[in-house]
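Changelog note: in this version the structure field was regenerated for every chain. One regenerated record is shown below for reference.
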Amino acid sequence: MPDIPSAQGLTASFAGVSLGSVIGFDADSTAGTPYEFTPATATVVGAGLNSRVVRQLNWASVENGTTSFRALGNPIFVESDMGMRGTLAFSVGGVSVSRTAAIKTSRRAGERGGLIQAAYEFVFTGED
């Protein structure tokens, strides 16, 4: 059976500030914003008023992705911190990452009888 990486020991910090007791993370990559275009060599389908051309899809840019974390306790970063840029450093499954990011969202959630949890979403800026 192959080795399955563990999130045990997950640590994260942003702009030199620890996110605290991190209990989970999500990392997303995206191809960016798509746009459609019709090349000069497009295939024509049909004839007359019912004719169409086959369009193509391309990407305006390749986005750098997002990463979000869940931690125990109240959020460290608040509304006035949104958009701030800094170094997002985290270590999980034996892999360490350190990249420039901007904080996009900070949320707080809880339920009766449970612990309050903070959630943060960061967008990589592509500056590194």
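Spot check on this record: The mean pLDDT is 86. The domain at 1-29+65-128 is CATH 2.40.10 (Thrombin, subunit H).
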